Amino acid sequence: MLKEFQAFISKGNVMDLAVGVIIGAAFGKIVDSLVNDIIMPFIGALGGVDFSNYFIGLSHNVTATNLVDARKQGAVFAYGNFITVALNFVILAFIIFLMVKAVNNMRSRLEREKPVAPPAPPPADVALLTEIRDLLARR
Question: What does residue 77 show for φ and ψ, rounded to 5 degrees?
Fold first, then answer.
């Protein structure tokens, strides 16, 4: 069982996956910060609206005006928080789309600039058969 586990771990796919997950988590933090710290403040400044504090109290005990205090008082329907998360998702998806598009453009540019190798000569037997075919065609 130990040898099987060692063989499983030493496969390249497992290590590639581990590296991808780690880099993905770090990248997620960067994009999350971009959305929350740079883009969302501009959206809030343009509209002067903070969706995160929009809620409906589901109990008569809820009298607070902000979501944190309202949740302490009782059950709340925090639809503004959902709107904020959904908006963050749309912005995040658009940013990732732009990044993937940039990487694809860079790859295609590199492919176009790569020199095209001349085709490999045919094997000797194919060349000989081609020569025989051409000689027979002339007769």
Answer: -100, 100
Distance CA 136, CA 139 (A): 6
Tens of each residue's pLDDT in the chain, 139 residues: 888 877 777 776 777 788 888 888 888 888 778 877 887 777 777 766 667 788 888 888 888 888 888 888 988 888 888 887 888 788 778 888 888 898 889 888 888 877 777 888 889 998 899 999 999 998 7
Nearest to 55 by CA among 73, 79, 84: 79
Tokens of 24: 């993905």
DSSP the chain: -HHHHHHHHHSHHHHHHHHHHHHHHHHHHHHHHIIIIIIHHHHHHHH---GGG--EESSTT---SSHHHHHHHS-EE-HHHHHHHHHHHHHHHHHHHHHHHHHHHHHHHHHHHSPPPPPPPPPHHHHHHHHHHHHHHH-
Residue 34's contacts (CB-CB under 8 Å, 6 or more residues apart) are 95
